[in-house]
Design a protein that fits this description.
It is found in: Cell membrane. InterPro entries: AA_ABC_transptr_permease_3TM, ArtM/GltK/GlnP/TcyL/YhdX-like, MetI-like, MetI-like_sf. Keywords: Amino-acid transport, Cell membrane, Membrane, Transmembrane, Transmembrane helix, Transport. Belongs to the binding-protein-dependent transport system permease family. This protein has 233 residues and is mainly alpha-helical. It has one domain: MetI-like (MetI-like fold, Orthogonal Bundle), CATH 1.10.3720.10. Helices cover 81% and strands 0% of the residues. It is elongated. It starts with a helix and ends in a 6-residue tail after the last helix. The mean pLDDT is 88.
Amino acid sequence: MYLSNLFTNPDMQEKYLDIFTSSFLPLVKGALYYTIPLTLITFAIGIVLAVITALMRLSNVKFFRGVARAYVSIIRGTPLLVQLFIIFFGLPSLGVTISPFYSAIIGFSLNMGAYNSEIIRAAILSIPKGQWEASESIGMTTAQALKRVILPQATRVSIPPLSNSFISLIKDTSLASTITYTEMFRKSQEIAAQNYEFLLVYSEAALIYWMICVALSFVQDRVENRMERYVAK
C-alpha cells in the first residue's frame, strides 16, 4: 500500500522529493564536518596505538607482551557500543566528564588500535626472518632494521586490511549518535523526528554512507595497485 501510493500519488511524490532534497544538504554537511573528521582523527590515533601495541606484542619483554595482550583482549572482547557508553556515561560517576566529541575519539581510537594492531603484527610476522638476519649482517640494530627494512615491507602487506578497517570505521562512527555526538546519522535522527519520515531519511543517510564507501573503495584500489609487491609483466 505504501509503495503503491508513492508511485501513483503525485502529491506524495512531491512531498517526499521535498523532504529528500531539503535534508540532503544537512546530511552531507554532517558527513563532511563531523563524520569524516572523526574518522580521520580516530584512525590516525588508532594507527599509532596499533603500531605500539603490535611492537609490544612482539617484544621480548614479558611485561610489555602481557599489557598489550590484555588491552587487545579487552577491547576485542567487548562491544564498541558498550565501550562508548562506559566512557561517556560511566566515567562521570567517577568524577570524569568527557564531551561527546572526545568520548567518541577515545572510544574509536582504542577500538581501532586493538583491531589494527593484530593486522600490523601479522604483517610484520609475514616478513621472512632472512630480512632480519640480512639487516643484522650489515651492522643494523634491531630498531634500524625495523625502521628501514621490516616496516616498509609490512606496510605493503597491511594496506588492504587497514583500508577495509578505515571503511568500516566510517560506518561505525554512526554509533557516536548514541552518546549525542551530532555526526551524520545523529543529524538524520533529528530530521526524521521533525517530519516522521524515518524510512525516507534513514535510507537517504544510508545512501550517503554508501556513496562515501564506494569512493573510498575506489581510492583503496588505486593505492593497492601502487603498493603491489609484484607488477605483472
